Amino acid sequence: MMTVMIATAANAVERQAWIEVSGLSCPSCPYIAASALSSVDSVDIVETDYDEAAQLAVYLLTYDDAVTTPETIAKATMEYGYPGRVLDAAPES
């Protein structure tokens, strides 16, 4: 059993994902959404682009693919009522 755990850890890769979170209608909302995202094990927020008028933010994250998936990370914001979704590519500026 120990060998399997070591082999899995050795195959882990840090990856990046773009997650869009909508429904951010108050000044605290982007911070609450960021807290939800970063509460997922191995997730770190690298960059945030908040569009107050559109009430959405796009977060560039790093995560360990042996620990979680972008889809799981995006779902973390739903606990606070903010829909999250994985973007296929970086958003256009």
Characteristic key phrases:
93 residues; alpha+beta; Alpha-Beta Plaits; four-stranded antiparallel sheet; 3 helices
Summary, kept brief:
This protein is an alpha+beta fold and 93 residues long.
Describe what you observe in this structure.
By secondary structure, the chain is of the alpha+beta class. The protein has one domain: Alpha-Beta Plaits. It has helices at 2-11, 29-38, 70-75; strands spanning 14-22, 44-51, 56-64, 84-87. Strands 2-3-1-4 form a four-stranded antiparallel sheet. A hairpin with a 4-residue loop joins strand 2 (44-51) and strand 3. The radius of gyration is 14 Å and the shape is globular.
CATH topology grouping: Alpha-Beta Plaits
CATH architecture identity:
2-Layer Sandwich
Distance between the termini: 47 Å
- In the predicted model, the low-confidence regions spanning at least 5 consecutive residues are 1-8
Percent helix, as a range, is: 25-40%
Order of helices and strands: HEHEEHE
Morphology: globular
User: What is the domain tally?
Assistant: 1
If strands are numbered along the chain, what order do they take across the biggest sheet? 2-3-1-4
Q: Averaged pLDDT, please?
A: 89
**Radius of gyration using CA atoms only:** 14 Å
Task: Classify the secondary structure makeup into a structural class.
Answer: alpha+beta
* Secondary structure tally: strands: 4
Largest sheet: 4 strands, antiparallel
Strand content: 25-35%
Per DSSP, the total helix count is: 3
